[in-house]
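Handout, page 2. Input:
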Amino acid sequence: MSKRKHFAALALGGVGRIGMNMMVYECDGKYIVVDAGVSFGDETTPGVDVIIPDTRFLREHAKDIVGVFITHAHEDHIGGIGYMWDDFGGAPVFATRFSRLSMENKLRELGIKPAKGEVNTAKPGETIEVGPFKVEYVGVAHSIPEAFGLAITTHYGTVVHTGDYKFDEHAPFGQQTDEKRWKAIGKQGVLAVLGDSTGIFAMKPSGSEKAVFEHLDKLIGESKQRVFFAAFASHVGRALNVAEIAMKHGRKVCFLGRTVNKMLGYAKELGYTPAALKGYIVEAEEASKLPPHKVLVFASGTQGEPAASLTRLSQGQEVRGLRIDEGDTVILSSRMIPGNERAILNTINGLYVRGAEVVTELTDRETHVSGHASRPEIQHMYSLLKPTYVVPVHGEPGHLTQHARCAEEWGYKPLQLTPGHKLVLAPETPFTQPHAYAHGYNYIDGLNILDNDALPVKERRKLSYDGVVSAALAIRATNGEWLGELSLSTKGLLDERLQKDILDRAAKHAMKALDAVFPDALIDEPQRAREVIGQSLRKSFKQERGKSPTVLVQFIEV
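Output:
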């Protein structure tokens, strides 16, 4: 990597993919990291807990990392912090109070004890100097307490990293986007904005939490039985708002889900929880014994997550004494994240089967507003900052492309940031450095961190599609003579009770193939015999079932 003096941006995550946000800024060979997020697996990554950026670049340059900055406490910005902790090389990490509480809890869960000075509280308006960088936290409205954008200044100029933001006069906890400060930064001169692209396709303002509050008040007030309410677990503002609405209508509230209860704990510790709610928040076991019209249940699982409480409730399961009965109201106050549609619809259909009255964005747009700036709000932010260049981030290719086109229409010069290639912003005319750096992503798989598309995940994917066959054959320990017939059992391939004839035919074909290679019935090359049996069985099941299963062959010596 070139050691020339310049100011540059490198994307390790959050560009070309929703979530997993992590940006690196370089100034004269020193680096700061912004955010350390995760994204989540799907049907193509069975068994994977979360996905994080490939951090080989950080490990290779750890001695030159001078600071790590967290914009806010959503999982796609902070969820990977513990898994990457050692990659920062002991550099100081900065986060505001709410994000710091979340971060420290994640570190404790992984058994990480930061050294003195590694974790620091950032304050709005304060300028933090690390190496050649000056970093200022500037408040923005979002769906979680204490969300911030960053103004990053070096002797080459100022870059603004917007983080997630919107404009809302009635934002949760009263934190509005600080237009006055952003405008002042714009007057001082902004070289480039690395801006959130999530809402670029929304043509109207994203809407106010006040309107959602008023609409939910009406829906909950009209409900005659138990109300189940689902929102993103990290949307603390909405969780507390709906609790206040429930209190107004004489309902006690219980919160199902580990994450939402953690977030509410942080909010309470920092004084964000209204004092009037004391006595109205109860445990599920108590809520289950109250009259239905006296209860509101906040349930996790807006995206159809398999283990989430709402998903289990939609399947007719009882969760800590609570279940959905005919006539109950279920409100999903969220949007469908691309890729989750099928799982969400399965949950919704299950709720209808239970006889619930279901309110979602599909039937009622007023139950949710986005926490991300829409196209006109993005344009407004740029009118405050007046940047020379716009670099779209936080989005899939379609978001980034549309964002760049809009920036050009608005009179700004768009630049493309490509993972794996450094975007040099100054001192020359911006250009993409052709020398590639390590990038991609890793799987968090239990206690392991696996490379992108690692062998275990590939094998699980194949098992989930084609199943597995176990083949056992008894052989004499002294000379390898096989005794009896091949015994087969399967998982995920067929129903052995109903299709025993298929197993019998496959076993006979395998024994016939084995006899052709070992005509004296003596297995003197076990590995070769395993290959013969495996090939024969895969061929048989391909013909019979259209599947090519994984075959495990075991010789039992007697």
